Amino acid sequence: xNDFLNSTxxxxxxxxxxxxxxxxxxxxxxxxxxxxxxxxxxxxxxxxGIISDRTGAGPQIMAMDEGVKATNMDTxxxxxxxxxxxxxxxGSLIIVGGDDPADARQAVQVALDNIHRTMxxxxxxxxxxxELQFTARxxxxxxxxxxxxxGKAFGLICGCxxxxxxxxxxxxxxxxxxxxxxxxxxxxxxxxxxxxxxTITGDSGAVRQAVMAGREIGLKLLGELAGSEPxxxxxxxxx
Length: 239
Prior knowledge:
- By secondary structure, this protein is α+β, with helices and mostly antiparallel strands.
- The protein has six helices and twelve strands.
- The chain is globular.
């Protein structure tokens, strides 16, 4: 499915957009100092890269994690607005900073190029959704947004409604020897989204195995609730 929109735009701040999650990529080549001061950053940046979307946070965060790995950009802020256009989850706002506008544009472009891949393990149904993410080496966007340990394997296991996420987390931790980073519930760690989300770190193989175990039980439970098999819009990448 090719829904990437990029191109002939003459708007200098526009990098590209994708229908996947209603995601837009932007750059501010020379940020206003007064605005930068209000972002509460500890370091001065000349340029900002931005990913903003209506649906999804994990996919966009992990996509931008690839963007910062490929460039010299620092992650300034990751926020989780309550959104999804009426669904049980949220959207996201991701801001990265640096000195070179070309670097910012590249980071955003790499993130946009990765959205379809990181959306591959998002499963939807009328009754709820599942979201799984994995990387063998987390960078600073995953650290700021999800509490990952930089340089180590990282996994996200999320289910909506939140009770499904709780069972997924238990199954994942019982399956492989991984270290839990956090477990988030509607009132603790999310923007009151109806999700239960476990983040984990550890050996790369064990993290992958735990994520897959969570996915397996989550698909069964959400299927029982929905009365039909949850579907992903893009090919699964966690195998």
